[in-house]
């Protein structure tokens, strides 16, 4: 494979913009890709042509329009690792000179020029490359954790598959479930030691993917509203009469609570006890 190290930048130093900046950038979200390349095209024989490369697909970081035309990959051959963009069309055509269609992800100009000259693809009207194209690496490397060989196509496939199995949204829901079940304070997720623990145990997790306490509060409200609709449906379809009980208890901080529970049997003869509300 031809070298393109002269274009390479440090993947770990390219820090994405804050989430607040992304949420307020209408230009980025307006032209964000609606689809991405088919990463299943990366079979073992394809990885053999790209020693040291692993899939690094992350839709939350691929907000610039040209990500729908190229793969987001990580080059693990050097330290620190590099995030690169590989043209999907050239890749599928098995073009030999890889330097003509492999670019460092932060070099947006080269990517845009390649798409324009080689494939007659131009930016959407009014769209310019912006900060949304920045990329970063994980805190701990999967290759180091698994002692995998980045030049081995089978190891490349394994690492890429493991990375694709992690869903940050599910991780947030599991954190919320853990905190609420054990009645733990939400600001626990702001602890530096807690965040270090998460990052160490999951090399696919990035620090900006760990939710703040405010994010979890908003997520809890959203989950409550979603669950409320499901509870209403269950109560309307109850086979038995709905019975209510009232429970009172005091926390360790001497705060008094009153809860209302509903008891019923559904159409499948399953017995339910649902907490409808509680008051401090």
TrEMBL record:
Keywords: Metal-binding, Nucleus, Zinc, Zinc-finger. This is BED-type domain-containing protein. InterPro entries: RNaseH-like_sf, ZnF_BED_domain_contain. GO terms for molecular function: zinc ion binding. Coiled coil: none annotated. It comes from the Eukaryota. Residues 1-26 are annotated as: Disordered. One of its GO terms (cellular component) is nucleus. Residues 1-10 have a biased composition (Acidic residues). It is found in: Nucleus. SUPFAM superfamilies: Ribonuclease H-like.
